[in-house]
Amino acid sequence: MSDIIAYKVDGEIVDTQSFKSLKNVKNAEEIYFDNSEDALKVIRHSCAHLMAQAILALYPNAKFFVGPAIEDGFYYDFRVTKENGEKLGKEDLPAIEKKMKEFIDAKEEIAKICSTKSEIANEFKNDDLKQEVLKRIPDGEVSVYKQGDFKDICRGPHVPNTKFLRFFKLTRVAGAYLGGDEKREMLTRIYGTAFADKENLNEYLRILEEAKKRDHRIIGNEMKLFTFDDQIGAGLPIWLPNGARMRSKLEKILFGVHRRRGYEPVRGPEILKADAWKISGHYTNYKENMYFTKIDEQEYGIKPMNCVGHIKVYQSEIRSYRDLPLKFFEYGVVHRHEKSGVMHGLFRVREFTQDDAHIFCMPSQIKENVLEILDFVDKIMKNFGFSYEMEISTKPEKAIGDDKVWEIATNALKEALDENGFKYGIDEGGGAFYGPKIDIKITDALKRKWQCGTIQVDFNLPSRFDLGYIDENNERKQPVMLHRAILGSFERFIGILIEHTAGELPFFIAPTGVSIIPINDAHLNYAKEVQKSLANLEVDSEILSKNETLNKRIRTAEKGRVPMILVLGDNEVKNRSVALRDRRARAQSNLSLDEFLEFVKNKLNEVNF
Questions:
Q1: Mutual orientation of helices 593-605 and 524-536 as an angle, nearest 10°?
Q2: Which of 219, 396, 490, 548 satisfies CB 3.0 to 4.6 Å to 503 for a cystine?
Q3: Are 147 and 53 in contact (CB under 8 A)?
Q4: Which residue in the list 152, 356, 444, 540 is annotated as catalytic?
Q5: For the whole model, what pTM was predicted?
Q6: CB distance 527 to 520 below 8 Å
Q7: Is residue 307 annotated as a catalytic residue, yes or no?
Q8: Distances (CA, A) of 256 to 14, 35, 95, 468, 482
Q9: Which residues, at least 6 apart from 87, have a Cβ–Cβ distance to it below 8 Å?
Q10: How far apart are CA 200 and CA 443, in angstroms?
Q11: Which position among 151, 249, 282, 358 bears the catalytic label?
Q12: Using H for helix, E for strand and C for coil, what is the string for 334-381?
């Protein structure tokens, strides 16, 4: 039996020391030293403190802010300067790890000490970062955790002894603004991870190394898909010809699928009067994420979402219950003010394009439309080789609308999933400010989870904009608005897809489907004929005919992750055939030109949305 490192009491995790002081405990669950979700939270939070203890031992001038456990590890934000005046870097991590192992070998007890906020404030009176932490803590009892010579303000919980922290790794050094505020000083942040055994730690580190090889920023550069430019601005991707071709193929396929499923294409403006955002609630609840300007002394907001434009489409004429559901979709370009510290390649940008749709329906139609969307999600994810899971996000602290309306909307989502046997989790307080939602989280080839699609039920915006339809009794009623995105954004989804496939994109959206390599100039005319035949099938191809060796030209195609490579020589010209290297199937073959074109048609028809 593994050691007990904590307990779960009425859904809250407490450490062993706190548990001993509890009285009349009726509903307690042991948390053992293993790799369960609850155990890892305790282990990783404790490992963050262990890291801080080691940093303090090596750099006595260090001051610490916060060090939480996160989804795949932990981090600590702190201020430190080395003797030479430089900040800590990746080269300093081995020394910190070595010191951490010394404290693990010492098997130091981790003790919880409770006191009043004023007493703790006095104890840390010369530590400005700890004073910042105390500002965020309500008055009353405050806990401090101590191990060896290290003390930190923390509510815990933590493992009882440093011996439980043996399997860890510090992974990277970054900068982080104090409290996430760009106007405050930049602190040093060290990330790490920890597990209950060596095997899981090694597997995680293997995946981390593989993820570095699959970094979409590196592969995107090698494939010449997109770029960023400081003269343009941070978080504003520039799509190069290869990337633009890939995007257009994805957009074209999804456009056709939307139309077959009864969606109507619409387009709203990218800039709207601030008055519209005041009615929608974005001005009050989302203003810090938006960009505003003035035109003729009138304030305008650049749209962060497409919903208001689609509402105006709905309001363009009188609607009857016979018209519903109305499904509007748009590849809407939106802008959001992301902080500079969180932008990352295509994953977090300031301009992006949503595969956005809004469904206006009667309350009785919510369930059937949610199920239709889920079927759409399933088809798309299967075509791209993603597994996925769902989570219902409920009313957040900052929200608009009546509690009863929120309850009706949330229950509608739960009923749609329950009645059809879908499994889902609950994210309490994770909903949008105007309504609850189903979040679609996909799992990639490295078993990482990504938030992509969302389905949101909204009674609030139809009420705020006074939307209506005439029912069968000739009475005016208010429709429900379903917000829906499946990819989430083209930018983020493409970034995820690149890393999922390591750049080996599906043939139907590959920017260049075929590389044609004539061995010498005598074979160039035949190469052009093959290229024209592929163009008739709407397949993009390239002819690599530079004055370079054959092997170098083949390597160029491989570096570009082109799915199919054709080598054309005397035999191919004479026999009207091709020597095919299928990089996806890892196979080589000789086919007649007609056979190859038929093969390409079949590859294109493998898509089944």
A1: 30
A2: 219
A3: yes
A4: 356
A5: 0.86
A6: no
A7: yes
A8: 53, 45, 57, 29, 21
A9: 80, 81, 188
A10: 18
A11: 358
A12: EECCCCHHHCECCCECCEEEEEEEEEEECHHHHHHHHHHHHHHHHHHH
Output Rg (C-alpha) for the chain, integer angstroms: 29
Q: What's the CA gap between 211 and 217, in Å, rounded?
A: 11
Q: Judge whether 597 and 608 are in contact, CB under 8 Å.
A: no
Cβ 334 vs Cβ 354: under 8 Å: yes
Single out the catalytic residue among 17, 53, 147, 354. Answer: 354
**What does the longest C-alpha to C-alpha distance in the chain come to?**
91
| Residue 483 annotated as catalytic | yes
Alpha-carbon distances, residue 295 vs 117, 299, 300, 309 (angstroms): 51, 6, 7, 19
Q: How many CB atoms lie within 10 A of CB 219?
A: 20
Residue 503 to residue 499: CA distance in whole angstroms: 7
Task: Flag whether pLDDT at 84 surpasses 60.
Answer: yes
Q: Which is the catalytic residue, given 245, 249, 335, 483?
A: 483
Q: What is the pLDDT averaged over residues 157-169?
A: 96
| 123 three-state secondary structure | helix
> Can 49 be counted among the known catalytic residues?
no
Residue 464 annotated to the active site: no
Taking a C-beta distance cutoff of 8 angstroms, is the pair 155, 143 a contact? yes
Is 356 among the catalytic positions? yes
More confidently predicted of 580 and 434: 580
**pLDDT confidence of 85, banded at 50, 70, 90?**
confident
189 Cβ neighbours under 8 A, 6+ residues apart: 75, 76, 77, 78, 173, 174, 175, 176
Of 437, 492, 523, 603, catalytic:
437
Using the predicted structure, report yes or no on whether residue 253 has a pLDDT greater than 90: yes
Terminal-to-terminal C-alpha distance of the chain: 49
Q: How far is CA 210 from CA 5, 76, 339, 501, 588, in A?
A: 32, 25, 28, 12, 27
Q: Report the candidate in 165, 167, 178, 190 with the shortest Cα–Cα distance to residue 96.
A: 190
Distance CA(235)–CA(229), nearest Å, equals 9
Instruction: Determine which one of 44, 169, 327, 336 is catalytic.
Output: 336
Residue 140 has pLDDT above 90, yes or no: no
| 47 in catalytic set | no
For the chain, percent of residues with pLDDT exceeding 90: 78
Please identify which of the residues 92, 147, 249, 307 carries the catalytic annotation. Answer: 307
What 3-state DSSP class applies to 194?
Answer: strand
Q: Which whole-number Å values give the CA distances from 293 to 303, 308, 352, in the listed order?
A: 12, 18, 19
CA 466: distance to chain centroid?
34
Residue 67 CA to residue 159 CA, distance in Å, equals 15
Between CA 253 and CA 506 the distance in angstroms is: 13
Which residues on adjacent β-strands are paired with residue 7?
14, 30
pLDDT at residue 403 in the model: 84
605 Cβ contact list (under 8 Å, min separation 6): none
